Amino acid sequence: MLGNNIPEVKLGIIAVSRDCFPIALSTQRRQNIVAAYGKGVYECSVTVENELDMVKAVDEVKGAGCNALVVFLGNFGPETPETLIAKNFDGPCMFVAAAEGDGDMINGRGDAYCGMLNCSYNLGMRKIKGYIPEYPVGTAEEIADMIREFVPIARALIGLSSLKLITFGPRPQDFFACNAPIKGLYEIGVEIEENSELDLLVAFKEHENDPRIPAVCEDMAKEMGEGKYYPDLCVRMAQFELTLLDWAEQHKGSRQYVAFADKCWPAFPSQFGFEPCYVNSRLASRGIPVSCEVDIYGALSEYIGMCVSGDTVTLLDINNSVPQYIYDEDIKGKYDYKLTDTFMGFHCGNTPECKMCSSRAVKYQLIQHRLLEPAGSEPDFTRGTLEGDIAASPITFYRLQCDSEGVLRSYIAEGEVLDVPCRSFGGIGIFAINEMGRFYRHVLIQKRYPHHGAVAFSHVGKYLFEVFKFLGVSDIAYNQPKSLPYPTENPFC
Prior knowledge:
Distance between the termini: 48 Å
Shape: globular
Structural class: alpha/beta
Largest sheet: 6 strands, antiparallel, barrel
Strand order of the largest sheet: 10-11-16-15-14-17
Radius of gyration: 25 Å
């Protein structure tokens, strides 16, 4: 579904062995892990005891096309060679260790529990990043499970290491909340290319009468269904879609993956002749995020969410409270949430159609129509949004942000979209997150987060947490239970 803009993880496993322990212990335990994991992991034939073994092993897994690696301490392990594996391998490395219990506790004891301590210490001294799970010691079956959980984390880290963020236009006036230092991008290895809206307009005009347009129009009509789109807008929207796709290919440079952060108002609709929201939603469905209002860190957050969930995502305003009458009619007594646990997530129409209710349709942007077109007139160039209620689903609401001081910080909160009609406009859903009211005040407001949040359509908080932690984000906020007050929470309230 997400196309080729999300990396495919090709795993390898290398076992290491301290030379005063039986090498057969590490080799056999490695084989047991591969058998427990099943297909999808390349088993390196070299068990590493020294630096020369390390070179051979890394060359072997690179030659096999591996882009992520499991370094397995089948016994105590050699500190220097095992950590140099991560230094010399181009990709994320997870370090795990064998639990005891598979036989002889005299000649068959491996002491990997002890070896993991020295491994971590050595990684730190060398300033080498290695991924270590919550509890990194286990049986073959338990380590196979750790490897499965490593895959989405590795996919995000690989993607970020080869991601280019492409922007068009400065942030809209009075939307400075979307503005943020690009310093944080460079710190995590992401490239950025900033362009003018004029660059985009010129490229759009050059795609007029592109021979591929009819096929894109046909695909749009098939996707939406009869009566759910504006036939007279299809050519322009298809032209724009091809413009963005071609720009991505022509401007990747040395990078493999892309995400866009575009300025979508106020000049865009009048100059291009439509709102870009529906096109943005279609690209998101293919794994290419296109954030609104030049929200650079919104696009970055979306991309990370796509990698860890393996599914499309969206970007929404944390928009408005749920009215008491809707809560009383459709939520109270049916769902176990307080009114303050709920809110409406909204945007003009960038959510992929596959995540919306069947009533979704391409419509017009009411707010922009009020602002840009004559009062009382029929919508014209403000058409092009994808509107309707977002379908009920488990969700993770999250964001990675570089604050005004240049410090990376993040939040993660799991919840759900309720199966409740919103009775409003735009792409919109009623979201429920436990203790949202406190989270809203003591994280989102207190830590000065912007109004945009990324939404993954599954519970992937544990993977996002591990990715953010690996990237060096020290402030990873979450919706704390009532029993765990926030530092700024008044204990007398």
